[in-house]
Amino acid sequence: MLKEERQQAILNEVELHNRVLLTDVAELLEVSIDTVRRDVKELDANSKLRKVHGGAVSMGFTNNATPNNNIYALADKILIAEKALTLLSDGKVIFIDGGTTCNEFVRLLPENLKITCFTISLTVALKLQEKPNVRVIFIGGEIAKESQIAIGANVIHNLSEIKVDYSFIGTGYVDSLYGLTEFDYDIVQVKKAVIKASKKTVLLCISEKLNSQHRYKTCDINAINTMITELQPENNLLNLFRNHDIRIL
Questions:
Q1: Count of domains observed in the chain
Q2: Is residue 53 part of a domain?
Q3: Is residue 64 part of a domain?
């Protein structure tokens, strides 16, 4: 594989999953970790991604000021957000996760929609503040530097004391058999608490993430009430998910 092809493959993985580990990319591309490390360092120098300890994160995931046209699969994420909006009405109490799809969801919230929204994402909280009829409650804790999401025991405790109508969450990886998984153990613990705090959990997920898995499990697929992708619900790529007790939009 040429260096240009290898670096494009690295970028694709980073953009798809927001964050990746060097060890995972090396295994995927069947090259040494040192090779991946050099590629990531070069991509970082060219402002294509951000190098972090042991891995890399996408620019859209770390930069609040990133223009919309720099967001990976933006059209798909907007379509997902538009579908998610159909679940909302005045008076709802909801939770919104972090990540680029959730950011698009927040951006599209109607100005006249009157809801209460909890979040652990600094980016989401700031975007929600621009909505005049949304009451914003930030659940604070230790801030993860790459994702700008609150994590830790305080967040989990505060989530245990609320019950929202809907939680809108993202995931790094989703599979019909293995459920939702991540490589970040701290994020998994927070997402477990979010699901427990929700009457209904809605997964916002582009189809490229389907049939993928990682180390730490967030939940079984049946713990999700609704899964929203950019695909039509009858698309064959969703066949395995239709075997479960889950609504597909």
A1: 2
A2: yes
A3: no
Per-residue pLDDT of 62-97, as tens digits, reads 555 455 556 788 999 999 999 999 999 999 999 999
Give the CA angle between residues 29, 32, 36 to the nearest 5°. 70
Section 133-160 average pLDDT:
93
Residue 63 falls inside a structural domain: no
Which of 130, 54, 73, 128 has its CA nearest to residue 98? Answer: 128
- Please indicate, yes or no, whether residues 8 and 95 belong to a single structural domain of this protein: no
**Do 51 and 73 reside in the same domain of the chain?**
no
C-beta separation of 71 from 99 below 8 A: no
Instruction: Name the E strands within the chain.
Output: 19-21, 50-52, 55-57, 93-96, 115-119, 134-138, 142-144, 149-151, 164-169, 173-175, 179-182, 198-204, 216-219, 226-228, 247-248
Contact 19, 172 (CB under 8 A): yes
- Neighbouring C-beta atoms of residue 116, cutoff 10 Å: 15
Which residue's structure tokens are 């927070």?
190
Note whether 141 and 150 are within 8 A (CB): yes
Q: Residues 199, 102: one domain?
A: yes
Which CATH number is 31's domain given? 1.10.10.10
Both tokens of residue 40?
Answer: 């990531």
> What is the C-alpha separation between 24 and 36, in angstroms, rounded?
10
In which domain, by residue range, is 227 found?
A: 69-248
| 204 C-beta neighbours (distance < 10 Å), count | 27
What lies within 8 Å, CB to CB, of 75 at 6+ separation is: 230
Q: What do you get for the CA distance between the two ends of the chain, in Å?
A: 38
